[in-house]
Amino acid sequence: MKDVMFYFELHQPFRLRPINLTDLRGETRDIFWDEKNEEIFKRIAVNNYIPATQHLMEYGIRSSFSLSGTFMEQASRYCPRVIDVIEDYVKSGLCELMAETYYHSLASIWNDEEFTRQVSMQTRSLKNVFNYDPVSFRNTELIYNDHIAEMAKKMGFRNILAEGTDEISSRYNVNHRYAAPSGINLYLRNYPLSDDISFRFSNRSWKDYPLTADKFARWISLADGDLINLFMDYETFGEHQRPETGIFEFLKYLPRYFQEYGIDTILVREAELRHRTRDFISIEKTTSWADKNRDLSAWMGNLMQVSTFDRIRECKDKLGDLWGYFQTSDVIYYMSIGDEQDFTVHEYFNPYRSPYLAFIYTNAALDILCGKNYGKNVMQ
Fold first, then answer.
1. For the chain, which domains are there?
2. pTM of the predicted model, to two decimals?
3. Which of 9, 96, 100, 141 is catalytic?
């Protein structure tokens, strides 16, 4: 018997409103782009959150979700039906909820205390909304190193997820259960098979197009190892890969072919009951699942990002309750340039369509809240 472990990220940021230079003359204004945030969330709820979750329940597919605190806030505000559907999925026993940082932030790479605070906020929200106590942890965008694993272990989590980078997969078969030096269970993403669904499913120029449930189940059955970890953005199903691509039909027939090939879907919390630890893996260099480099360059790759990140950290006292929302990783991600391949992905997610506009708007908001003309000085 071979197992597949599906994990899905559910996150939405509170995007900052585009702000013109003339707005800096005002003392205060609405910083967050509420109408855009509502528009995007409601669209994805109809395309993805509701139908995909209903399909997973209907087809009996087990998976693990991590819900950022900002996602839960927007769901409650803009489309409570999303919360209801996820709650039904959890109560069915088919879904595990995982911990992460409340603001989907970069706190783990700069401040242990802030990181712990945000994880505690998110787990309290899971308890309040779903009456659920998570035992598994995934960090923002799978940002990972030994220290982050140790922190998760100290917070009481039994399991943690990480990216199966090329460097790691050259030394270890990612299709097994491992452990970090701290002893926490470590599960590595099989990114080629994950990306076959999330990025290549509808690509007609891909040599393996079309990706059918039969073909994919056969690939998994032939893969070396006993545990295939398929981690991806939940919006893959119905939003990034639209219904007309056949993505929901793919989900529908996947359990049938999984059964035919002797494959089962399991939750993260169940893996330690079915698979032994193959080895201890030390990962000192910080990794992530972002971009081709799979490191921190998606957020720390240029001066605009570094200077804005530093400024946000320095503005804690002036931002007050808004500080956490400015820490959301998307705020810095929108300023990424990267190479041509990565830039295409960044442009898709960037509501401002330009990393330079993202920098200008973010620093204009910080100018209003924390002090004038900082962004202008950095650009000079």
1. 2-280 (3.20.110.20), 297-379 (no CATH)
2. 0.94
3. 141
